[in-house]
Amino acid sequence: MSILIAAIAFILLGASARWAWWRARVPGLKVLCYHKIGVPPPGSRLKELWVSPARFRAQVKYLLDHGYTTILFSDLKKAHDGKKQLPEKAVLITFDDGYENNYLHAWPILKELGAKGNIFVVHGTIGKANLWHNPASEPWVKMATLAQLREMQDSGVMEYGSHTLNHPHLSALKLEDAAWEMAESKRQLESAFGREMCAFAYPYGDGAYSPEIRAKALEAGYLFDFSFRQGKTPWPWAREAGPIDRLFIRGGDNNWDLALQLTRGESRL
Ligand SMILES: [Zn+2]
Question: How do residues 205-214 score in pLDDT, each as one tens digit?
Fold first, then answer.
């Protein structure tokens, strides 16, 4: 008996070290952040940024089965402008960069299950590859083409925001060049898709907490700016308080991680 109790205590202790289930629930906006849906290519050092299609499908299904409503950037804008209330369990599924695997694997799953997603597109690499990575450490893979992105938008399942022209470290640029990356990508994406780009995500999260760079992002006309920091941001959002945080889904995350991220703002220590 005492061995059994010791075993249970050991398992609970192990689970507590791995998962943050004992944390208090945190209110706020739930924004999931994905990158690539698929299997990492040989040589990838960023394997945690790849989520398998089966896992992604299970996560979207989990959301829908647990009463979450997946929303688009335009829904968030309507809510921010007071034109529509957010559903009680609203969640934004976002993807960074605009990979072809979003078109091949994520979009069909969202469409099939009746969910919505949003992609932060790097304008300069549409139809090309993730040129900002050194292929020696992270292999180049295809980015979605303009036709694929338009097809996803026309389905009503995906909307877009900007992730700059070239995916630079914004704080490493001259301020005027950083401003150009943000403002010109907005213009180019709006003319490519015929829609307003109300949302922006800082590549690598770089510059999100620099007052000068953030001022340029807002000056470019974005309503929402998204950081690369783990967590949930209070909603209604106080724009002057800072960018919107996100919940990062890693390749190894299961539905228990997802549940903790949604309710606690993080799943691990
Ligand atoms: Zn990125």
Answer: 999 999 999 9
Tally of residues, the chain? 269
| DSSP-derived secondary structure letter, 207 | T
Query: Distance (Å, rounded) from C-alpha 118 to C-alpha 193?
Result: 14
For the whole model, what pTM was predicted? 0.93
DSSP 58: H
Task: Tell me how far the alpha carbon of residue 255 lies from the centroid of ligand 1, in angstroms.
Answer: 24
Ion ligand 1: residues, Cβ under 5 Å: 96-97, 203
Span from the CA of 205 to the centroid of ligand 1 (angstroms): 8
Q: How is residue 92 written in tokens?
A: 């934004």
CATH classification number, 25-264, choose in 3.40.190.10, 1.10.15.40, 3.20.20.370, 3.20.20.140: 3.20.20.370
Distance between CA 186 and CA 69 in Å, rounded?
27
Question: How far, in Å, is the centroid of ligand 1 from the Cα of 136?
Answer: 18
In the numeric block, the tokens 């920091």 are attached to: 229
Looking at residues 121-133, what average pLDDT do you find? 97
